[in-house]
Amino acid sequence: MQKDNDLILNAKQIHQQAWVFDAHCDTICRMTNEGYSLEKSNKTGHLDIFRMQEGGIDIQIFAVFIEDIYKPDRSLRRALQLINSFDQEVKKNHSSISLARNFSQLQEIKNSGKIAAILSIEGGEVLEGELGILNILYQLGVRLLTLTWNQRNQIADGIEEARTGSGLTNFGLQVIKEMNRLGMIIDVSHLSEKGFWEVVEQSQAPIVASHSNCYSLCSHPRNLKDEQLKAIADKRGVIGVTFVPRFLTEKKGKVTIEEIIKHIDYLVEKIGIDYVGLGSDFDGTKKLPVGLEGVEKYPYLTLELLKRGYRKEDINKILGDNLLRIFKEVVG
What is the pLDDT of residue 34? Predict the structure, then answer.
């Protein structure tokens, strides 16, 4: 019993001292569609300020997700609505959370005891084929772009269009180059395999898969094959392990934190500790593993990593240091 108590205490200390960085949540849509507020405890959802504080979150990437009904011709308008909703919510809670546009601001926000929010967009259809819109979104604070969702857009094919074997369009090639120039993180989650390999070839900066898992453990099309995992590591990128049950296991029944740990273990074994992160997909899924039903449960993941024999410095890398490195190197 004493040994268990010591382990729990050690896990809490590691978690409190670490930079905890989650690469993906879909909470902005809930803010806009359901009147979801960050300042209230939202037990129907997965994430709010109080629960983020309880879970020890230091940095959260908030995704602007473009729903199908707004594609293709209302994507930008919808994105601006969502960004405005997010901006108002952050301003309303300025004493607890702030938008970070660069690494220096991340440090300032953490040192002030607040949560750092990073803005991303999930779906390059937001650009509506106009490269100049990318620069405008950058000025609004967007620092990561998930190139596609599951369908085709002006940049590339999503994973549901993989049958065509298509990769990046000419416009997509321009987007990759411009994102490198601006200092925006390229996210390959949801991208078709052909498009993935062309991004690897074209990008001069590290790339991320903000919320994807290992195909060898769960053969869902959204997951990444071993060669893809290695390619991201070779570019000094990061894979954010996601908590969505259908991307964790093909088994029926109860899914637990153990399934998340299996994907982390696999990544560490195949590509090394320096390329593994976390991308929960909170508020983007109805179901979550037992024991990790919301952001407040994050310390239990740290406890499981410690039980598994991970050292403190390696746990710190998984919890956030690896994603911090990407943000510092790409965004600056």
Answer: 85
Residue 74 burial (CB count, 10 A): 15
Let me know the angle formed at the C-alpha of 21 by 18 and 26, rounded to the nearest 5 degrees.
150
Q: Looking at residue 132, which CATH number applies to its domain?
A: 3.20.20.140
Q: Judge whether residue 40 has pLDDT over 80.
A: no
pLDDT tens for each residue of 300-319: 999 999 999 999 999 999 99
Could you tell me the two tokens for 281? 């997909």
**β-sheet bridge partners, residue 209:** 239
Total of domains in the chain: 1
If DSSP codes are grouped into helix, strand and coil, which group holds residue 168?
coil
What is the model's pTM?
0.97
List Cβ neighbours of 301 (8 Å cut-off, separation of 6 or more): 257, 260, 278, 292
List the domain range (segments joined by +) for residue 312: 2-330
Between CA 190 and CA 196, with CA 154 as vertex, the angle to 5 degrees is 35
Which residues, listed in sequence order, are joined to residue 97 by a DSSP beta bridge? 115
CB 220 within 8 A of CB 162: no
Output 36 or 187, whichever has higher pLDDT.
187
What stretches of the chain show up as alpha helix (H) in DSSP?
Answer: 2-17, 27-34, 49-54, 75-92, 103-111, 131-139, 170-182, 193-202, 226-234, 245-248, 257-271, 298-307, 312-316, 322-330
What lies within 8 Å, CB to CB, of 194 at 6+ separation is 157, 162, 165, 166, 167
How sure is the predictor about 4, in pLDDT bands with cuts at 50, 70 and 90?
low
Q: Which token pair is 147?
A: 């190139």
